[in-house]
Amino acid sequence: MSTPYDIAVVGGGIMGSGAALRLAEGGMRVILLEQGDIGQGASGVNAGTLSLQIKRVRLMPYALRGHQEWKRMGAEVDYRETGGYTLAFTDREADLLQERMTMKQEAGAPIGFISPNEVAVREPGLCRKVVAASWCPADGFANSSLTGRYYRHRLKAADIDVREQCGVTEIHRDEPGFTLQTSSGPVQARRLLLACGGWLKPAAAMIGLDLPVRARVNTVSVTERGPRLVSSVIGHATGLLTLKQKGNGTVLIGGGWQGLGQPGEGGNRGRVDAGSVLPNLRLARYAVPGLKELRIVRSWTGFEANVPDFYPLAGAAPGVDDAFLLGCVRGGYTIGPFISQLMGDFILGRQPELPLFDPARDFTKDIQP
Amino acid sequence: MNGGPRIVRDVRRSEPVSFTFDGSRIEAHAGESVAAALMAAGVLSFRTAPVDGGNRGVFCAMGVCQECIVEAGGQRVESCRLEVREGLVLRRVTYG
Amino acid sequence: MAEQQTPPISPIAPVAPVDVLVIGAGPAGATAAIKAADTGLSVVLADEQKAAGGQVWRAKSTAILSAPSTPESRAGDDLRHRLSASAATCLFDHRVWQIQPLDQGWMVALTGPEGPRVITARTVILATGAQERIFPVPGWTLPGVIGLAAATALMKGQMILPGQRVGVAGAGPLLPFVAHEILRQGGEVAFVADLNGLADWTKLTPQMLRRPGLALRGAGWLARLRAAGIPLLYRHGVRRITGDGRVEQVEIGPVDDRWKPVDNQQTRSFRVDAVCLGHGLAPATEATRMLNCRHDHDPALGGWHVATDDLGRTSIAGLYACGDGAGILGAAAAPVRGRNAAKAVLADLADKSGAGQTSPASNLRSVSAFGRAMTSLTIPRDGILDQITPETIVCRCEGLTRGDVEAGITAGGVSPNALKSDTRCGMGPCGGRFCQETAAMLTARLTGRPVEEIGLPTARPPLRPLPIEAVASDFDYDELPIPAPAPL
User: Fold this and answer.
1) pLDDT tens digits, one per residue of C281-331
2) How close is the nearest chain A Cα to the Cα of B50, in Å?
3) Cβ(C315)–Cβ(C294) under 8 Å?
4) DSSP symbol at A271
5) Taking a C-beta distance cutoff of 8 angstroms, is the pair A42, A304 a contact?
6) pLDDT tens digit string along C202-247?
7) Residue of C246, C400, C433 with shortest CB distance to B55
8) What is the CA angle C211-C216-C217, rounded to 5?
9) What does the alpha-carbon distance between residue C325 and residue C338 come to, in Å, rounded to a whole number?
10) What is the pLDDT of residue C112?
11) How far is C446 from C394, CA to CA, in rounded Å?
């Protein structure tokens, strides 16, 4: 076997690819192993929303930096800073909106409140049942389908050894680090970074860790091309709708409605549940009446991993020297390009610009009975 | 104007009706598919493709390819699966 | 005002499931439904068309009050008669957009003339048939270029001709059928260009003689086409189709035994107002792919198809497939395969411990010999890719040329899902049904791998474009099942 790599990164989504790039910049010899195609998991099938209005308060500083990264990626990922509205249709939702957006505002997001009349003037394609709304000019979206193309190109340019269609089946601790059994033979590396999203739990089990990771199964639907209905990102006070119309006229409808299946089950991409797609479409149709003229051409699902406190896992693997974990970032599409750099810095022995999220923390108080 | 002529030998059809496509009056028979009626009337281009700007019309004639869609009552409908009835008002699909 | 029901979608309302839901009312699906109903099972048969018969035994539109019968129309009428006499409940003009497994059985979501509905079933038989394979060629998006199968649908169902002067080109048994039908019904056929050579046909004589009646009809079609002075050009393919907004001219030229265009001096041009173009049938796999059934690739069966046992059991319990969707064997085999699938359902439902004992499969081998022979004429040969110029549109929905697709492959989009994400090839309303195979063949060529290694992209619902208005038009906002908000 040839000289061991400085680090093996398992998972070729935004997290793994972003960290691999940082590590290579830092002088490490990196191999990246991806069981499918680069950027085709959650990184490539999410709705592409870049909205500070749906980010958790404590993660706001990371999201703000994430937005800067997406802006930098620009046209290659079809980044659009369109601004975004969050809508409330009932008094209860208006209260929720007021409470949540005020907290996010205080956390540094440039969010303001806007009158329903003003919303109607600026987005005439929205329904007239808005009772309260917030607006964030920094919100927008990118085309998540282009994640894979973007990172594949950058990984190649950085001379990182990338193996696609290369699943890891076993990981052994040995000198001077780890031996990974893969579908294309064994790989040796001094360090290990597991950044495999929904598959973090089975991967961590290979190094003896039992992580309290579960996967959410988020659903997204897209219409055929249509006339211009909205020009900014549209959200709902409950977070159960994200909607934007891309430059090509297709409308992407998401909002975290849950599909079926778990990582490792047939197809490995989850399954769409008609029972959650329909209310999602109804909410979208309610918010944007012009959708009645369009047809859904595809609904799909992707896995978003989370731990009981819904904060990221980013740091050293507890009890396993030279192994690291990165995942479970709620809003991972937005934050991924930034937090993966922090992770890279941490592994390189540098002080990360913002603190990481120690995977060894106590989750027991958060676990629901 | 050429089109797909109706087969008439020993064929008896339903009563003649008319509908409009993009403002033009089209004579047809009740129950015929809109796709067939338009072809028989010499109308082959139903739509301008949104990306390449080319004309499109009937292609698979069985509801799969989506090339022959027209706008009916604010909805996009495959014309090969839409039946002609008197007074139907159809438009070319626009993409804005 | 009539009270509109919203469908009991989530949670699944405890309506009594039917024993079998059959999707597709062609010869395979309708026969399966009749057979299952005859044995006392409760059966629902759903089809997007307005009557049973599928493509091969397609029913006439309601505009046709009477017309001379043909062997196909008589077979279709007989099937429709037997179906209406059976106890199977038929849902025509209904489109299935989602199929999902329940703890026990299946939930199937449909849209129909009365709005959305949901059916639960203990078992599902998929009889979704085939779709036409049509390889790109310069000008193939022009109005007036239609599939060979499209031509049969228009002539059988609507009783209109594809045009007044028609070029017929491609490969397989539909070539002589379509050309002869146009001629018989009073149209003009400019030429028939067949990628196969005469020798490719004659070597199939023994198999064709398994159905002497049909072989004789075929010979008659060719004789009448020849007698009418129509050029029958073997080992010829379309080079380009041109016209101002519609088909006006088509250029034909010789091909070699890999179907690669050769002898560029030997091309001929014909003035036409329509071109019927097709290269055989491919099994419709979107439903079985969506459900993650195992699929096999066999060029002799039309390429990728859902894997089944002799009776049509797929790799997923409670899900069956029959007819051309499970591999192209043709119309004669379809009813046999439908009966087999019904047998399998009956055995499995009777034996609750698991798969029921296997009843002997019927005489499938002999009834499918003719169909297999015809399918063999349509196995794509890689030289056909050379008829596609770099500027030719490959993905019709997204307007992507061969050059665009190849650039995506060269940049590393070498799996079907990656290529789709990177380029949008196959992301449009048709769901990749008319570009997927070409994209896979281009990938195979550029990466030096066999086409079966390239695989298939993930299939997702809806199975056909789903009008938002059909499922989201009428609801009470307060009844949207909105869960608790996400953590702050």
Assistant:
1) 999 999 999 999 999 999 999 999 999 999 999 999 999 999 999 999 999
2) 8
3) yes
4) B
5) yes
6) 999 999 998 899 899 999 999 999 999 999 999 999 999 999 999 9
7) C246
8) 100
9) 11
10) 92
11) 16
Tokens encoding C31: 């026969």
Query: What's the rounded Cα separation, in Å, for the pair C127 and C79?
Result: 15
- Going from the C-alpha of A46 to that of each of A143, A147, C447, the distances in angstroms are 9, 10, 29
**Token pair for residue C386?**
């050379």
Residues from chain C that touch B54, judged by Cβ atoms under 8 A, are: 141-142, 393, 399
Type of residue found at C476: D
What radius of gyration do chain A's Cα atoms show? Answer: 21
| Minimum CA–CA partner of A293 in chain B | B75
Which site among C460, C474, C475 would you substitute to test the A interface, given the most A Cβ atoms closer than 10 Å to its Cβ?
Answer: C460
- Nearest-angstrom CA–CA distance, B11 and B13: 6
Q: How is residue C268 written in tokens?
A: 């001929």
Residue C480: predicted pLDDT? 82
Helices A332-347 and A14-25 pack at an angle, to 10 degrees, of 30
DSSP element (H, E) containing A162: strand A161-163
Instruction: Kindly report whether the global pTM for this prediction surpasses the value 0.90.
Output: yes
- Cα(C427)–Cα(A249) distance, integer angstroms: 13
Picking from C411, C428, C477, the nearest residue to A149 by CB comes out as C411
Set of chain C residues whose Cβ sits within 8 Å of the Cβ of A51 = none
Confirm or reject contact between B25 and chain C (CB < 8 A).
no
Neighbours of chain C (3+ CB pairs under 8 A): A, B
Distance from C-alpha of C376 to C-alpha of A175, rounded to nearest angstrom: 57
Record the tokens describing residue C164, joined without a space.
């007044």
Task: Supply the DSSP symbol for B20.
Answer: E
Residue A155 CB contacts under 8 Å (≥ 6 apart), including other chains: A12, A17, A20, A21, A32, A38, A162
Q: Which helix (H) or strand (E) holds C339?
A: helix C333-350
Structural tokens at position C89: 């409940």
pLDDT at C11: 36
- Of A320, A318, A133, give the one whose Cα is nearest residue A232: A133
What is the maximum span of chain C, computed from C-alpha positions, in angstroms?
80
Other C-beta atoms within 10 Å of A201: how many?
Answer: 23
Q: Do B39 and C160 touch (CB under 8 A)?
A: yes
- Residue B2: count of CB within 10 angstroms of its CB: 17
- Determine phi and psi for C382, rounding to 5 degrees: -65, -15
The beta strand positions in C210-329, using DSSP E, are 232-234, 236-242, 249-254, 268-271, 274-278, 281-283, 295-298, 303-306, 319-321
Query: For residues A110 and A105, what is the distance between their CA atoms, to the nearest angstrom?
Result: 6
Q: Annotate A67-104 with DSSP letters as a single string.
A: HHHHHHHGGGGT-B---EEEEE-SHHHHHHHHHHHHHH
Q: A224 to chain B, minimum CA–CA distance in Å?
A: 10
Tell me the shortest Cα–Cα distance from B42 to chain A, in angstroms. Answer: 27
CA distance A38 to A148: 5
Spell out the alpha helix ranges (H) of A74-199.
91-106, 116-122, 147-157
| Nearest beta carbon to residue C466 from set A269, A282, A295 | A295
Pairing of strands A30-33, A161-163: parallel
Q: How far apart are CA C55 and CA C210, in angstroms?
A: 23
Half-sphere exposure of C37 (CA within 13 A, CB side): 20
For A4-31, write each residue's pLDDT tens digit.
999 999 999 999 999 999 999 999 999 9
Q: Which residue has the higher pLDDT, C63 or C484?
A: C63
Q: Which of B50, B66, B96 sits opposite A228 (nearest CB)?
A: B96
Mean pLDDT of B59-87: 97
CA A2 – CA A179 distance, rounded (Å)? 12
pLDDT digits (tens, 9 = 90+) for A36-84: 999 999 999 999 999 999 999 999 999 999 999 999 999 999 999 999 9
